[in-house]
Amino acid sequence: MGFQVTTTDGICHLVMDHPPVNALTVAGWFELADLLTAAGRDPEVGVVILSAAGKGFNAGVDIKEMQNTEGFDALIGANRGCAAAFGAIYDCEVPVICVVHDFVLGGGIGLMGNSDIIVAAEGTTIGLPEVKQGALGAATHLARLVPPHRMRQMVYTAEPIDVSMLHAWGSVAEVVPRDEVIPTAERIARSITQHSRLVIRAAKESLNAIDPVDVKRSYRMEQGFTFELNLSGVSDEARDAFVEKRAPSHER
Predict the structure, then answer these.
(1) Per-residue pLDDT tens for 121-169?
(2) How far apart are alpha carbons 151 and 141 in whole angstroms?
(3) pTM, two decimal places
(4) Burial of 80 (0-12, 13-18, 19+ CB in 10 A)
(5) Domains in the chain with CATH codes
């Protein structure tokens, strides 16, 4: 369990392996950020392929860890850890190809939305269930994947959509059977690594420089509203209900 990192012919495979659904702990988010940063700084690496083992690509933060920790340390840690991991993908010195399967939820949207290229397995669904947990976040990254009004609907309803819709919008490069996602990502990666490492790294930096939205500042703004909701008490009740597998009380 944890992370697996291998590099061959300029392609770095970074695999998340956190059963049962690849929900990351606070430490896990920071470790992922460090691994992404290190991979990008490795002069032998031309592309990073980020994928996951087991069930689902990523189910966001480990809510059980958060509810089993006294005070707000886990909450603050999860928010900072997510920001670090999302930022590490965005700032990675080489392109990051995100390979998704089964489902992408919450923090997984942040990873997916900040990546450069996406390959998905057929039947994959993506969603932001944050409002169910009394939280907000990663709409910044969802907005990089879907049109504005669809993004709003997904945030308000917490309902997922099939990745085939993203392929139709051009956000996802290819949707293929599950056993073909890694070979497909490797094919795209080889089409990148055939070019000068220096040129590709400059291209990544330049593309980030012309982005119309500052993703770090935008996500930080979202986090501020999440902290307000936590102070109100509604978030704790929603997370307790999730852990206890019951319906939350909606007194507010």
Answers:
(1) 999 999 999 998 888 999 999 999 999 999 999 999 999 999 999 999 9
(2) 10
(3) 0.94
(4) middle
(5) 2-177+197-209 (3.90.226.10)
